[in-house]
Design goal:
The complex is a heterodimer of chains A (about 110) and B (about 110). With about 110 residues, chain A is an all-beta fold. Chain A contains no helices and 11 strands. In chain A, strands 2, 4, 5, 6, 9, 10 and 11 form a 7-stranded mixed β-sheet that branches. Chain B starts with a strand and ends with a strand. Classes of the chains: A mainly beta (about 110), B mainly beta (about 110).
Chain lengths: ~110, ~110
């Protein structure tokens, strides 16, 4: 398997623009997670899905952020409008099951908002 | 709430030195515990895990033992290599949520 795939790997945009990050989980994995990593706040869970259904979005910072999972092989994280404080590395991860299962991380998308 | 605390970094060691990175946790239930490693420019990779008290996880010469009495999961390696230079994250999962809670990460630098 190719592992978790994220695109783009790098994104540079200007404040106010819409940004869409994409993720393809490992085939057969039921759980998908979106994380954000910054120097100040470390790794934060933004939202996660089980069988394409959002289960917990309490980590989504504000209404400018939205995430969708239209099918088992694709998810998006959208920021509209983007702000400089959204600059971070965004990771997608997937997991085959529930308690104690390993999460497999993608390589991340480095977002810079100017 | 549930949380993970790791020792402050960076940790700088010479090659072949002994490594310990401390990790303690606070949890209301019985978590599974993990160590993840992040090499520069990459995503996180599972290094090892333990799912119940007294379990020892091991991989690539690294070990950690789930100590319920001290709520700890310290990472150890007997002889580090330059290639072990990375950021190490301790994490836990509670119940059936699947939500990983991470520590702040500890940077390890190994010098030749």
């Amino acid at each position: 398997d190719a592992g978790v795939i994220q695109s783009p790997r790098h994104e540079v945009t200007e404040m106010g623009q819409e940004v869409t990050l994409r993720c393809k989980p490992i085939s057969g994995h039921d759980y998908l997670f979106w994380y954000r990593q910054t120097m100040m706040r470390g790794l934060e869970l933004l939202i996660y899905f089980n069988n394409n259904v959002p289960i917990d979005d309490s980590g989504m910072p504000e209404d400018r952020f939205s995430a969708k999972m239209p099918n088992a092989s694709f998810s998006t994280l959208k920021i509209q409008p983007s702000e400089p404080r959204d600059s971070a590395v965004y990771f997608c991860a997937s997991s085959p099951g529930e308690h104690g299962d390993t999460q497999y991380f993608g390589p991340g998308t480095r977002l810079t908002v100017l | 709430g549930d949380s993970v605390t790791q020792m402050e970094g960076p940790v700088t060691l010479s090659e072949e030195a002994f490594l310990t990175i401390n990790c303690t946790y606070t949890a209301t239930g019985y978590p599974s515990l993990f160590w993840y490693v992040q090499y520069p420019g990459e995503g996180l990779q599972l290094l090892l895990k333990a799912t119940k008290a007294d379990d020892k996880g091991s991989n690539k010469g690294f070990e950690a033992t789930y100590r319920k009495e001290t709520t700890s999961f310290h990472l150890e390696k007997g002889s580090v290599q330059v290639s072990d230079s990375a950021v190490y994250f301790c994490a836990l999962i509670i119940g059936n949520t699947g939500k990983l809670i991470f520590g702040q990460g500890t940077t390890l630098q190994v010098k030749p």
